[in-house]
Amino acid sequence: MRLRTLPLAAASAAALLTAGVLPAHASARSAARSAPRRAQEGSVSAADLLAKVTSCSQISNGMYKTDDETSATVPVCGKNGAVFWKADMDVDCDGQRTAYCNEDHDPWYQDDTAFHQSDGKPLKAESLPYVVVPGSSSIWNYAGAGIKGGGVVAVIYRDKVEYAVVGDTGPTQLIGEASYATAKALGIDPDPAHGGVDSGVTYILFKNSKVSPIESHGAAASLGDQLAKQFLAAG
């Protein structure tokens, strides 16, 4: 995940933690992160999906960094009507302000997302599993590859599969980011400042798919399970 320099407020919070004094909002966040994890979604196993993406037919013109300070080593690959990559997971808390996604908890918080709900409002990172795709560049143009806002993504970490939507765009040189809700569902620390995971996350994006409305996670899970089965059956 990206190593970022925290502002003074975050540094002060770290000092409180070191001293054994836990702010009230930190206690609430800790409780939220320790809540029981949801069972795997759908009927397709993580092992079966991962077995299909052991090799890469590269479709990107170059490779991406997972963090500003790392080398570019991650290609975008294509297979069976999908694109995929293997990277880290940084936590995106952008979109509507909520109890855990706001300026107080996320030093890089932005109150908008590239794609919006059916009512025109930004997405809600705290409750909606979504994935961030790199902004279009000479490396790769997601739209040209059939990837749309609201498209379905299977996100795999260890033995868990979580279905998400394409919900935001990020830096043109970086890859490997998903919403607070995605991280939490996969058992990854969803703290936008200190959470995420350094490696081991696979993102499979199904081409020309679209969830409507984009904010319906149930629709994403249902369509995702169907598309994952087709992905496996394609050989």
What does this structure look like?
With 235 residues, this protein is of the alpha+beta class. It is built from 5 helices and 7 strands; from the N terminus they run αααββββββαβα. The protein has helices at residues 8-18, 24-33, 46-51, 180-185, 217-233; strands at 77-79, 82-92, 130-134, 152-157, 160-170, 177-179, 197-206. A 6-stranded mixed barrel has the order 2-6-3-5-4-7. A hairpin with a 2-residue loop joins β4 (152-157) and β5 (160-170). Mean pLDDT is 87; it is low at 1-37.
Order of helices and strands: HHHEEEEEEHEH
Structural class: alpha+beta
Distance between the termini: 33 Å
Got a strand count?
7
Strand order of the largest sheet: 2-6-3-5-4-7
Helix content: 10-25%
| Estimated radius of gyration | 17 Å
What gross morphology would you assign?
Answer: globular
Residues in β-strands, percent:
15-25%
- Total of helices: 5
Q: Let me know the average pLDDT.
A: 87
Largest sheet: 6 strands, mixed, barrel
Q: Topology of this protein?
A:
Elements: H1 8-18, H2 24-33, H3 46-51, E1 77-79, E2 82-92, E3 130-134, E4 152-157, E5 160-170, E6 177-179, H4 180-185, E7 197-206, H5 217-233
Parallel strand pairs: 2-6, 3-5
Antiparallel strand pairs: 1-2, 2-7, 3-6, 4-5, 4-7
List keywords for this structure.
21% strand; globular; 235 residues; 5 helices; alpha+beta
Short description:
By secondary structure, the protein is α+β, with helices and mostly antiparallel strands. The protein has helices at 8-18, 24-33, 46-51, 180-185, 217-233, and strands spanning 77-79, 82-92, 130-134, 152-157, 160-170, 177-179, 197-206.
